[in-house]
Amino acid sequence: MTCNRIVVLALLLAAAHARANAQTGPSSAERASRADTVVIEWFSLYGGSGGVAGQPVTLQHRLGGNLTPTHFRVSRLPDFTDASWQPYPSGVPRWSSPSFSGSCRSPGSARLVAYFQVRALRSTRSLPPSFVSSPQSFVVSNVARDTACVLIGS
C-alpha cells in the first residue's frame, strides 16, 4: 500500500512541475536567442540574367529574420575555405574575383557556381559584455547556392 502512495505522489508532483513550466514558458534569454535570426530566402547571381566575365558579379538576394546583416561572404567552395567575411554594403553586394568551374552549353561561356552567406550581430542586450565582440555574438544564416553562365570574351 505504501508503494502505491509513493507512485501517486510522484505522478502528482511531476504533473504540477509540468504545469508550472508550461505557464512560465521559456526564459527571456531563450526567447531572445530564438528571436535573433537572419535567413537567406532567395539568392541569384546577376539576378538570374547572366553576366560577363571581368565584371563584378551581383549577388541578388532576399533576407528574412529580425536582424540586419553586418557581413557577407561568397565562395566557390561550399565550406567557404577560400572566403572571408566582408562588411555588408548598403546596396547589393558584389563579388569582384570569381573563378569559373566549367563550361555552359552556350559557346563562349563558362559556369560560375557561388555559395553565399550573411551574418548579423545578435541583440547585445541579451549577451554578457564579454560576448559582444566575440564570434558568439553573431548569428550566421543558412548557405545559399546558385549557378550562372557567364559570357567569356567579346
Mean pLDDT: 75
Q: Tally the helices: what do you get?
A: 2
Main sheet overview? 6 strands, mixed
Share of β-strand residues: 35-45%
Fraction of helical residues: 10-25%
Query: What global shape is seen?
Result: elongated
Rg of Cα set:
24 Å
> Separation of termini?
93 Å
Describe this structure in words.
The protein has about 150 residues and is α+β, with helices and mostly antiparallel strands. It has two domains: about 1-30; about 35-150, Immunoglobulin-like, CATH 2.60.40. It is about 20% helix and about 35% strand.
Features of this protein?
single chain; 154 residues; alpha+beta; Immunoglobulin-like; 6-stranded mixed β-sheet; 2 helices; disordered N terminus
In short:
Helix content is 20%, strand content 35%. It has 154 residues and is of the alpha+beta class.
Summarize the topology.
Layout: H1 2-24, H2 28-35, E1 38-45, E2 51-52, E3 57-65, E4 69-75, E5 86-87, E6 94-95, E7 109-121, E8 138-140, E9 144-151
Parallel strand pairs: 2-9
Antiparallel strand pairs: 1-3, 3-6, 4-5, 4-7, 7-8, 7-9
